[in-house]
Amino acid sequence: MNGAPGRFTAGGNLFEAQSPSTATSSLGLACQEIATHLGISPQELYFVGDGPMAHTLALAGLPPQPRLVSAVERAELLAQASETLPVSPSGHLLESAIKANTYSLGWVNGEIGNIQEIDAWAARIHQSQGLLHSDLSYGLGVLPAPTGWDLASIDARAFGGPTLGILALKSRTRWSDPLPTLSPRYGQLHVEERLVVEAAAALRTYESVAKQNFERISTFNRDLRATCANVAHIDVAGDPAGIPHIITFSVLYAQGEELVRAFAKEGFVVASGSACMSTNLEPSHVLVATGRLTHGNVRLVIPYDEPADSLARFLDVLPRIVEGVRQT
Amino acid sequence: MSTPALEIDTSGLRCPLPVLALARRILEIPIGETIAMTSDDPAAGPDVHAWARMTGHTFLAEEEIGNGKRFLVRRETTQDLTNGLPEGF
After folding, report:
1. Each residue of B26-35: pLDDT tens digit?
2. Among A51, A101, A256, B86, which is disulfide-ready with A272 (CB 3.0 to 4.6 Å)?
């Protein structure tokens, strides 16, 4: 009993404590909508404060057998790894002997955009009695989500949603809530209802915009790779077959911070995985794990509704900016 | 392993300066010879690997020393990749 004022249902269990009519409430509809994206039932959803919290809890609650985490996962997952699994230069998990362990392998990488074959890995892992956790944040709303995982975690900000973490827990999965204050019942709400409703609305909008513009952004992705290939010594990370809106490249002999500043001067907001842009002076572990150049790094996350003229202008200014920064 | 033809120390320099120093100074040794570079930049290891891959030089080895690392690279090509960059970079 949380004793929150203005609430009738104790503990806020959505699907057991409330009347059947809640299925048509905005919250019930929002849960249904998110669950449909993931191919699960609304009772298999959990909501927590933010994405990193969802990732952390997801892995921490799985059986404490060896936890094998791919080297390009988020830091909160790698922090719980008993072993880190190597990846290819394009960021894909390398072939290895699968055992009855707990695995964590994300679907679309949020830094370099490569896509892992989650369902194929899940089948192999299940054959060996193992469990698969997957970070599904990037790719949701853009591509049909994989369904083979046992437990998924999602950062709603990845699809333009609010600060909200989503846990998708298949009812067959043995998972115990690592926080003793929370009940391990399904459908429990630990966040404000409006955040769930906002997340579902954001996902709906994101999906519709992504669908309308997928080909256009894919063309931009190809054009950007071609532009990079024409400028000497740019190392493009990831995979040409990756998700089109996430592209990362590194410029040899340039400083990441100066590139970010130069693009900002032209009106473009880009991020960088270079050490000079990180608080601990360590370069992005994803760039390191995939053997990419870590200095002069630029990371683009293109909104699917980015106007065509601004994309064209980016391709236009790129060679000039690279040349300018290399020679400052 | 044979003694490096050139030994450079980039301690205190941060990305991309260690790799840039390596790119410049490797031109001072004959093709087939080895240059050793010491760096205390945490980004230097991955960068020296990636730079060698991008430029065609051969990454031979790395070893921990003090609070940094020492890298051995064999010069393979004659191309001057730093051409056009100012001396003070």
Report:
1. 999 999 999 9
2. A256
